[in-house]
Design brief:
Elements (H helix, E strand, L loop, with lengths): L18 E5 L4 H16 L7 E5 L5 H15 L6 H10 E5 L5 H10 L6 E5 L6 H10 L7 E5 L6 H11 L8 E4 L6 H11 L13 E9 L8 H4 L3 H19 L11 H11 L9 E6 L17 E6 L11 E6 L6 E8 L17 E7 L3 E9 L6 E9 H5 L5 H11 L8 H16 L4 E4 L8 H5 L23
Parallel strand pairs: 1-2, 1-4, 2-3, 4-5, 5-6, 7-10, 8-15
Antiparallel strand pairs: 7-11, 8-9, 9-10, 11-12, 12-13, 13-14
Helix pairs in contact: 1-2, 1-3, 1-12, 6-13, 9-10, 9-13, 10-13
Bound molecules: 6-O-phosphono-beta-D-glucopyranose (BG6).
Length: 483
Amino acid sequence: MPLVATRAGGKETGPEADALVIFGISGDLARKMTYDALYELELHGTLRVPVIGVAKDDLDGKQLVKRMRESCVAAEKDDLDESVFERLSERVGYVRGDYEDPKTFRALAEELDGCEHPVFYLETPPSLFEMVVDGLAAADLTKGARVVIEKPFGHDLESAKALNAELSKHLAEPQIYRIDHFLGKEPVMDILYLRFANLVLEPIWNHRYISSVRITMAEDFGVDDRGSFYDPVGALRDVIQNHLLQMLALIAMEPPTGGSDPDPVRDKKMDLFRAIPAADPQRCVRGQYEGYQDVDGVAPGSETETFIALRLFVESWRWAGVPFFIRAGKCMEAKATELRVVLNSPPPIGIAGSAVPRADEIVIRIDPHGGACILVEAKQPGKETLRQVDLELLFEEELGDQPGPYERLLGDALLGNPEHFAREDMVEETWRIVQPLIDDPPEVETYVPGGWGPEGSSHLVTGYGGWRRPWLPSEEPYGAVGP
Ligand code: BG6
């Protein structure tokens, strides 16, 4: 297969798809993410196949296109290119039916007549994954196909294993593309490029120079109308087991090798996950924001965490003794996702009077406005003392417009590039890491919305210089010890 570089879909490694089938095309996720991702794929020439929506809503193709248009107009901020949307709408078909009913899959098979490599995107609740895959298999549609599924992949280690076992009855692992949309974010992909396409970071990227790593995912909104989804899930399952552990792997893994390894990045991530001992409930803090109990769909007396902070270690030569602190929370002061690597303090110097240099920090901001920043000490003008300054890079400003995660990942699935999808072994290994926190969860502490989580969260980092206020677009990135 030739390698094809495109805007959305780094490289082609499998046969290019000849149809895209979306189960759950009328749902919430489709409205929020998928329609506009399809428009962007069309705009950039990556969508070259028919798109068939499947759902049980009483719709026809025209009504579906109308819904898609509304979402795209909103997403494109009234700047929709009508000729692009017209091309997209000509690709769209709709099969109405129940997933329990074999007739739905027979109707789909007729639509797909002659297609050898369809991509089936299951945007359905996870409870329907098995039913849809069974239906596809019974209609003889799985051969040569790829199946893209949305998180959550199970709700603990055992259920993840069971789901994988079910899927593997009809599909080989390389046919399964598990979406973790963080892996489709360009700034997340940038982590490996910054680390390994340069020589400046790699020599210091180990326990001899790095004292700790902090990963923060803060959201300045609550659970809103997702109470019934969120309450049985909580922050650990919602974002730690998947998004944040995947980012931890990228910041800490060994360089991918060349040679004959067909899956070098995912293999190295897997090595990293294996080196992480299971999380310790004594080193975990759970919180729930005040007012959560009033959200529609939340069970009375719920102990679900809307904030979690934990400490992990990686048992490897590179990371011996370096703590990885991770926190994620809703209703925080600001929306910010970042990785922050804190270096050891330099030895005393003889050039800045009595000033003691602060440890340098390297920050990679994922959201909002991805970028990277190195905090270093400089000379205060006119004085023999120190001042912390930043060497800042904003990806979009420097590199231009970036595809959104769903555009990127659907493009990759169409081209047959699985690199930015979660593999079965990774999903199970990450559940293994967090399982003790599910089995033996620490008590939840209430916290006031608009801050940085419960008080206990700061105790977790005692002795390591505290949490840092995240680097926000409108603020200095200096690692002032704070929240
Ligand atoms: C989803 C979680 O996977 O990620 C949500 O279910 C969370 O709870 C969302 O808000 C965050 O994604 P993003 O891309 O908006 O940072």
